[in-house]
Design a protein that fits this description.
Structural class of chain A: mainly alpha
Oligomer: heterodimer
Strand content of chain A: under 5%
Strand content of chain B: under 5%
Distance between the termini of chain B: 40 Å
Number of helices of chain B: 8
Number of strands of chain B: 0
Number of domains of chain A: 2
Structural class of chain B: mainly alpha
Order of helices and strands of chain B: HHHHHHHH
Radius of gyration of chain B: 19 Å
Number of helices of chain A: 11
Largest sheet of chain A: none
Number of domains of chain B: 1
Shape of chain A: flat
Chain lengths: ~240, ~210
């Protein structure tokens, strides 16, 4: 259940592109054709499935406050979390190079379809963002970290597939000249993001948003009462 | 005159070669933090520092970096600079560093930085690279500040936390005439639409930039 919840949450509600704007550069640059978009999307899923669990291990057994306790008691006091950026990006860059070499050796056909996108991925914000969110949201186990990596990758894949399909169609529409290309893509992405926001009530059945509304109503009433009190005091 | 002949390196990225609206670089971490003007300004300063210093460092090392591993070398240089920025922010502006959360770390993969390293610093002398870094981060800062200005003004009626339009609870200022804040501007999608409109305005003014 926990896995299912995280899975749908990372694909739809916390979608990498529409909720957090990660990986926007390659999303905009490589979405002119559906076929290339599929290639890049698949490569992102693949790399995220490897790097997020790997960085989870690094974070849990090396970087977190007290993570070095398994070495012995005197190491428990160290907090290396300030090194996490450099460690994460080093893991990602080396994993991307490694994956490129392995895929080239064992599956030339996959290399031909994915290969050119792999170097691009090392600097795709979605990959590093996945690891950093994994760290800041304190994902509790390796299995969930793997789940998080794969499902965030799928969310990104869906987003780039959708925008590439729309951009192929929109070529036949009469867009104002100054908006053609980049401008209209930005606005469409904004509209898609508004659409994706409606997934917010999916897991909770809307109960959560209802609750926060009640709270904010209460807060407003409280503030109003306080303001009234202040006004009354100053009148007196 | 040697100082001024390269001034186009600073002025070009401000307009017709803007990193965000023309080169499509650095959008990743730019949009999510523009709901407040203050966060936009701090993010711009962070990028200015990282890109300015990073360009000089890469330019100084350009003849000794083997081209096969240059991406890793560049990432390590950026990551080191970003750690400095992150620790400084945590020490002097803790609340703000919480607002920016992972987006400080994401300066590392901000395409604008890798893009300028690849396109400029690897082929140019340090002083020119420095100017290029400053110019591009100013161009980036300009878009961030415009977006942050409109989102904060229309979304919460404040600028840098000051209530410029009056107080919505006391009904002072423009709120006395029934004005309401557009809370929609604070949501993520409106950042994209705002940048889309900036691109629209810019390309209408300069027809040479229109794509076909």
């Amino acid at each position: 259940m926990e896995h299912l919840e995280l899975f749908f949450k990372s694909i739809f509600i916390d979608n990498m592109v529409f909720a957090t704007f990660l990986g926007m550069c390659s999303y905009l640059a490589v979405s002119k054709k559906v076929s290339t978009a599929v290639g890049l999307g698949a490569a992102v899923i693949f790399v995220m499935a490897i790097t997020v669990p790997l960085n989870w291990l690094l974070d849990t057994y090396l970087l977190q406050d007290g993570a070095l306790a398994w070495l012995g008691e005197e190491y428990a006091q160290y907090d290396l979390s300030f090194l996490s950026f450099i460690m994460f990006i080093a893991t990602i860059a080396t994993m991307v190079q490694l994956v490129e070499i392995i895929v080239e050796k064992f599956s030339p056909s996959l290399y031909n379809s994915l290969g050119i996108f792999l170097p691009l991925i090392a600097v795709n914000c979605a990959i590093l963002g996945g690891s950093l969110f994994m760290q800041s949201r304190e994902i509790p186990s390796l299995g969930l970290a793997l789940n998080y990596g794969v499902s965030s990758g799928i969310g990104w894949f869906l987003a780039i597939l959708a925008i590439a399909a729309i951009r192929e169609k929109i070529r036949y529409s009469n867009v104002p000249p100054a908006l053609r290309g980049l401008g209209i893509t930005f606005i469409i992405t904004g509209l898609m993001a508004i659409g994706f926001m409606s997934f917010g009530g999916m897991l909770t059945g809307g109960a959560d948003s209802g609750k926060s509304e009640v709270i904010s109503q209460e807060a407003i009433q409280k503030i109003e009462k306080e303001v009234e009190g202040i006004v009354n005091n100053s009148n007196n | 005159m040697g100082l001024f002949k390269d001034s186009n390196l600073i002025t070009d990225p401000l307009a017709d070669n803007n990193p965000i609206t023309i080169q499509v670089l650095g959008i990743c971490s730019a949009l999510a933090i523009t709901a407040e003007l203050e966060a936009s300004i701090v993010m711009s300063i962070a990028v200015l520092f990282v890109l300015g210093v990073g360009n000089v460092v890469i330019s100084l090392m350009r003849n000794i970096i083997p081209s096969k591993i240059r991406i890793i070398v560049q990432l390590i240089v950026v990551a080191t600079l970003v750690i400095i920025v992150d620790l400084v922010l945590k020490a002097f502006a803790y609340q703000l560093s919480k607002t920016l959360s992972v987006f400080v770390g994401l300066i590392i993969t901000n395409c604008i930085i890798m893009g300028r390293f690849e396109a400029f610093a690897l082929a140019n002398r340090p002083w020119r690279s420095f100017l290029d870094g400053i110019g591009n981060s100013l161009g980036y800062a300009m878009i961030l500040i415009i977006v942050g200005f409109f989102r904060e003004l229309l979304g919460s009626g404040t600028l840098l936390g000051m209530e410029v339009l009056g107080n919505p609870i006391d009904k002072t200022g423009v709120y006395a005439f029934g004005y309401e804040n557009n809370g929609f501007m604070l949501l993520a999608p409106m950042a994209l639409v705002t940048v889309g409109i900036i691109i629209w305005v810019q390309r209408s003014r300069n027809e040479a930039l229109i794509e076909d």
